[in-house]
Predict the 3D structure of the following.
Amino acid sequence: MQRAIKHPDPRPRAESNIVPMAGSDPVRHPNSVAAEVRNLRKTYNAGTPHAHEALKDVDLSIRANEFFTLLGPSGCGKTTLLRILGGFEMLTSGTCRIFGEDVSRLPPEARPVNTVFQQYALFPHMTVRRNIAFGLEMLGKPRAEVESTVERMLDLVHMTDYADRRPDTMSGGQRQRVALARALAPQPKLLLLDEPLSALDLKLRQKMRLELKSLQRETGITFIFVTHDQEEALAMSDRVAVISNGHLQQVGTPEDIYEQPQSRFVADFIGESNLIEAKVAGVTGGEASLDIEGFGKVHAPVAERVEDGQKVWLSIRPERLVLGSGDGQERAKVTDRTYLGNAVEYHLHVGEHALTARSPRGGLRGRQDFAPGDVVSVGFEPGSIKVLLS
Amino acid sequence: MSTARLRDLRVFPGFGLLSVGCVVFLYAPIVVLAIYSFNDGRSVTRWAGFSFRWYQTVFANQNIQTAAINSVVIAVIAATVATVFALGAAIATVNRKKGGGEGAYVVLTFPLMVPEIVTAVASLVFFVAVGISLGFATILIAHIVFCIPFAYLPIKARLESMDGTLPSAAADLYASPAKAFLRITLPLLVPGLVSGWLLAFIISLDDFIITALVAGPGATTLPLHIYGMLRLGMTPEVNAISTLMLAASTVLVLISGLLGQAGRKH
């Protein structure tokens, strides 16, 4: 087994917190691929009755300098993928490359990758300073360089005042910062983050989101972030990969994922969506006429080939439903009204379909308020209907 | 007295008295033994004034000194070797519940439940069958073996309470498996190792039955020597040496307990 540690040489440093990264330098590696997995499969307990396919044929390219998020429900395989990138888990088949180098068979200590663990995994018998210095010491860096890098990292995560404390005397947010500093200190080519915010309370989580994002920009290191929280994923990422049941569902920018879901799973998992079954009733020039039982016909653009009579699903975001009355088109019955503070949510029945509409309150844009029992008309904002084939 | 206090199950009439009785029954003989070690007379039942004469006798007795040195040397070596074996066993069995870890745990700790006389006879028969002549070596081998489960338990407990991702974190930070063990796992196991070593040391120091059977004619340990002295007649000299052993054991148990507590706080 090859154990050579390939690591970028530290270059002369600027007088700032910014860590120069040889491996992910956009000038030297324009549009380079930071991590790439091809035909990746991971089967636990292969060959036994308890065999479990955690990842099935995953292909994924993560660009240098990207804040990339692996998003999915628990047990979907996202953490397994992260652990394979980190070297903590062996892949069953396929390849895994980091900046072009095949790392499939390398142990964690031979990969130019550092991890922020879910429970931080700080060494309890060492001070904050010793924790941060650990990776640099293991790389055999000279003492002066270790010390100056540790100071820089402490400053970067605003933990200089806590340098000589032990992890068990600190709060969750402080430990989080130390874990980040420890993982960033050896200047990895990739930083893996395994749900690092899940142990924090809401306010702190929102604060750390911003900090993580600015840290990523400052350091220029490629971040691969695992989370089950779609809001977190949308807020922080340059690109998101949605994973479900071991399959890669969709990869794209947060806008792509939210506005242009490619499957019912993505439409439902990212934000909220009304999913309505419909039949194709004619296609003209890239626009399909779609028949919703008990409602009538709607029109929406289709990218793929569809045939007349084909069953499809329509995805419409609740905030893009327009409710009205007095236009003679009232076909939906309000079954419930929920006050959300910044909006009001209406639950509707249209024929057999249950729909959710959300609208800012109080006659904004001419919208009225409705009560349970009201019969209303339902319209869709232009371009709000997304046709899904699967 | 409030009704809440009356209904409290912990307030059981007469229970306090029973507890006091138990404590007295447990400790009174030991206290009496310790008191009479300072008796000026030759009797262990009639008080004849305070003196350190029996302690002086003990320290002047060449045989007791030899036996004590034997005991300590055996206990130190047995505890050390057993701790090393137990450390290996603990690392191999923890975090491997499916791969025979559970079975190994049962096999390792079963000797704790085997009647000691059975282990003693078995050891004796084994040494005779293999042809090792009885003496210092056989005592040492037997002690190492029966100390392993005692050293194993605290180390295993410590290892189980350790965050299992720490070695992964060390590997992630470029530590080889050997370095991760030396820099992370081993320092964190120190309280368990010390606690296990002390337990093994005390068990070895106090053992009588197994030692009695596998000791040859030449080798003797402190418990064996005390038993020998008893057959020649009870004098406060026996009390004095017993009190010294008691004091040593108590100090070691206290250290072991304090270390265990310090470890849990982490």
